[in-house]
């Protein structure tokens, strides 16, 4: 049974913020990739193809780690650990289109439905941080 997400973490996940997903390779090493993410209640949803490395890794070992940083204020961030508890086929890209609309305002453009899957992640640990900095890099 997963833990409930805080309102701050829900806001980060509901925004068009990129999420870094770390999975475990067969040799035990980490693999990290930036992804789009959706949210269903207290669960996180990531869509991919069944043949992707993240899908293959989580089929073998469902444990994952994620980090999400606010696009406009990178000092707002969350660190999350959990596991894939459901692999839901998404051949009509219904789930993928919802997530794509959040990031691009349009349906997902790559319409090859074969092997599409939604990885549903239950959260075991989560931490939100807001650091007291203003993002003002030199130009």
Description of the molecule:
The chain has 139 residues and is an alpha+beta fold. Helices cover 19% and strands 42% of the residues. It starts with 6 loop residues before the first helix and ends in a 9-residue tail after the last strand. 27% of the residues are buried. It has helices at residues 7-14, 53-60, 94-104; strands spanning 19-24, 30-35, 38-40, 43-49, 63-69, 76-89, 116-130. The protein is globular and about 45 Å long. A hairpin with a 6-residue loop joins strand 5 and strand 6 (76-89). The protein has a seven-stranded antiparallel beta sheet, with helices on both faces. The model has no long low-confidence stretch (mean pLDDT 95). The chain is built from three helices and seven strands, in the order αββββαββαβ.
**What's the overall geometry?**
globular
Q: End-to-end distance, in Å?
A: 47 Å
What does the average pLDDT come to?
95
Listing every helix as H and every strand as E from the N terminus to the C terminus, the arrangement reads: HEEEEHEEHE
Give the biggest beta sheet. 7 strands, antiparallel
Number of helices: 3
Approximately how much helix is present in the residues? 10-25%
Produce a short descriptive summary:
This protein has 139 residues and is of the alpha+beta class. Helices cover 19% and strands 42% of the residues.
């Amino acid at each position: 049974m997963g833990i409930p997400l805080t309102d701050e973490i829900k806001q980060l996940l509901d925004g068009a913020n990129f999420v870094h997903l770390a999975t475990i390779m067969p040799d035990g090493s980490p693999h990290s990739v930036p992804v789009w993410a959706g949210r269903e209640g207290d669960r996180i949803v990531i869509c991919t193809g069944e043949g992707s490395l993240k899908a293959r890794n989580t089929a073998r070992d469902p444990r994952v780690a994620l980090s999400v940083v606010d696009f406009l204020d990178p000092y707002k961030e969350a660190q999350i650990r959990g596991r894939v508890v459901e692999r839901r086929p998404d051949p009509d890209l219904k789930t993928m289109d919802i997530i794509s609309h959040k990031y691009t305002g349009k349906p997902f453009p790559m319409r090859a439905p074969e092997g599409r899957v939604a990885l549903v992640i239950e959260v075991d640990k989560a931490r939100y941080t807001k650091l007291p900095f203003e993002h003002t890099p030199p130009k």
